[in-house]
């Protein structure tokens, strides 16, 4: 009788211990609403800004054949690139620029963080000082996001906050026009 009681108590304690440990370390509940920006395409990321009401007009998704930098898909380069026009900015005149480049921003997605950081360092060395090529830069792991330096700091900050929300697994807050 004592033996059965001790075995029963050990079984209960073991079950309680195992269920307590299991729920703390091995059971995970994925939030179906959580966004993983590192697994999104560059166009899907831009679409999140569009869905939030940002003043985005033309969106250009590049291929290896249409990429103006001729880097898409090349070793150690981005694997996806999407540019977008911000309707608050004057756009490039297609009669002077037949490539159809747009003024607004761009998203580049890389296959890994190392390639992204190499590209970021290179671009940052070109655009880090105010001038013709100045841009606001944001990055997270394998995603590099830039917006035109022609936007005001407040306007760029809205893009930055929206990007930060995406990196935190959340949708961007709806866009509200900044008068600055």
Q: How would you summarize the topology of this molecule?
A:
Elements: H1 2-25, H2 42-51, E1 56-61, E2 80-86, E3 104-109, H3 113-127, E4 135-140, E5 143-148, H4 153-167
Antiparallel strand pairs: 1-2, 2-3, 3-5, 4-5
Give a verbal description of the structure.
With 180 residues, this protein is α+β, with helices and mostly antiparallel strands. It folds into two domains: 1-29; 37-167, no CATH class. It has helices spanning 2-25, 42-51, 113-127, 153-167, and strands at residues 56-61, 80-86, 104-109, 135-140, 143-148. The chain has a five-stranded antiparallel sheet, with helices on both faces. β4 and β5 form a beta hairpin. The protein is globular and about 40 Å long. The model is unreliable at 5-29 (pLDDT under 50).
Strand order of the largest sheet: 1-2-3-5-4
Instruction: Give the strand tally.
Output: 5
Specify Rg, calculated over alpha carbons: 24 Å
Question: What is the total domain count?
Answer: 2
Give the H and E element order: HHEEEHEEH
Query: By helix and strand content, what is the structural category?
Result: alpha+beta
Largest sheet: 5 strands, antiparallel
Averaged pLDDT, please? 81
In short:
With 180 residues, the protein is an alpha+beta fold.
Notable characteristics:
single chain; 180 residues; alpha+beta; 36% helix; globular
